[in-house]
Amino acid sequence: MARVYNFSAGPSILPEVVLKQAAEEMLDYKGSGQSVMEMSHRSKVFDDIIKEAEKDLRDLMKIPDNYKVLFLQGGASQQFAAIPMNLMKNGVADFIVTGQWAKKAWQEAQKYGKANKIASSEDKTFSYIPDCSDLPISEDADYVYICHNNTIYGTTFKELPNTKGKLLVADMSSDILSQPVNVEDYGLIFFGVQKNVGPAGVVVVIVREDLIRDDLPEYVPTMLKYKTQADADSLYNTPPCYGIYICGLVFKWVKDMGGLSAMKIHNEKKAKILYDYLDQSKMFVGTVVEKDRSLMNVPFVTRTHDADLEAKFVKEATEAGFVNLKGHRSVGGMRASIYNAMPIEGVEKLVEFMKKFEEENA
Which residues contact 326 (CB under 8 A, 6 or more apart)? Predict the structure, then answer.
């Protein structure tokens, strides 16, 4: 069977060359006579894999030397607890709630201190990014938290909030490596890899060294202390070895594609094809304020909000090889996630299909 065009929000499409290389190395990784799935995380072979993956990520993102890169487990959701546990010195954090994941992080942080919601776009179903130029930042806030790109609602921060000198923490799960990032704008960046980097099961934390504390409350689990993980170079316990190996292959692929500036151009080109069609379509319409549109996740609905027609569209699209276009269960409609690995051809063919569907169902 031919490969489909996978528009899933995560776990999502991976570069075909990466999958082919992983298949070739499945039984024998570089003459070691074993699969990466089988090898000890303490072995020299795996040590080379994780070190090279870190080096390539540092190169791509230009991560300064005073930031640690941690390859961890538990997904991004576990960081909703780990971040307040590690960073709340005064027991206060401010949250800009622009979607489901920022909301969950805000709710989780309430267990460990005072979590203030200082801005939100929930009043219009998270369809825009609120004005963050002059926020009521708490004087004693340990950090300000954002979700940089909202997978479910398809919005993204084009400008960072004015944190008035406070530390900025960002969940970049769904747009990491899609464009250049100035790491020094943030105290901590984290991302679950299953959207733009690798298979589910790995979360990467990029944290400034001065934020890695030894004086944490007794209740903080050993495994959730950044110091535990940083001191052990992400090898305190058995890490998700195979997932890290795939991430490393994807980092090399992004380098081969020309790095993050080239990825941004590639992603803007792809997104424009889909948004241009949606803007002139008589049947479909995007759900996000134009200036806040994501390059990665494009939610859309029928102009008449016809649930039957939308179900028909998803069914026929799936049959035509365009899979996982159903919107998140909390919002309905449709969503095309067009991450780094989605080729331009995939978006062009989707638009062709949408035009045909529109003609046939006008």
Answer: 314, 334, 335
